[in-house]
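Recall the central idea of this unit: under ordinary conditions, the amino acid sequence of a chain determines the structure it adopts. In this exercise we apply that idea directly, starting from the sequence alone.
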Amino acid sequence: MKTFVRKFGGLLPLLLLPFLLTSCFDYVQSVGNKNGRQQIYYKVTFSKPLMEMIGENTQESWLDDETLESFGNKASLRNIDTDLEFGAEISADLDPKSLNPETDGELMDLLPRVSGKKCLIPFMPGEKSDALDGMADSAGEETGAMMIAMLSTLKARVLVDKSLVPKMKSACFIGNGVEDYQIPFYDYGPAWCLEIPLNVLLERESYQLGTIVVTKK
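Accordingly, the structure predicted from this sequence is:
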């Protein structure tokens, strides 16, 4: 898991070059809860042709053997490698009561937590994308504005099954001394779809980006 997140943080800055910002990155996450079991899914992929264009090695597997074996048989980790994209995905269908905090801590960190009307959903890339710190400040004013505008067109999507949140009132990142960042959401039938513009990842000092706070009606 650490490798999965670290590679995301290391590659994303390269994608901020203006000519690489169209359809180069895809992030999908879903969470659900059925019959007392929790279902989670994470997928991060990058455009292989564009990565090769900027000199990134796309022949090396995203997840090494140690990472693939780190969750044992409790989760499925798979490298994605096609002609057009590369990356990785993680999926699991778990009984939370079967997990041991001492041995399954990393896996438990991926699970949503429900407390009353609140559902706390881990948001993996935003949590540890240290490489994004200060990028907007270091860019020139015109370049920085263009970068932020282009990032706003790229979205991470988080699907929240209605088995977990039947009726959604709001979704947000908690603000650090500022107003919370409200995340737009849409009714996809069996699930709610949260769409998170990637420009918010440049504001880690303002918001607690590691957790999405969903409030139920």
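The longest strand covers residues 37-47.
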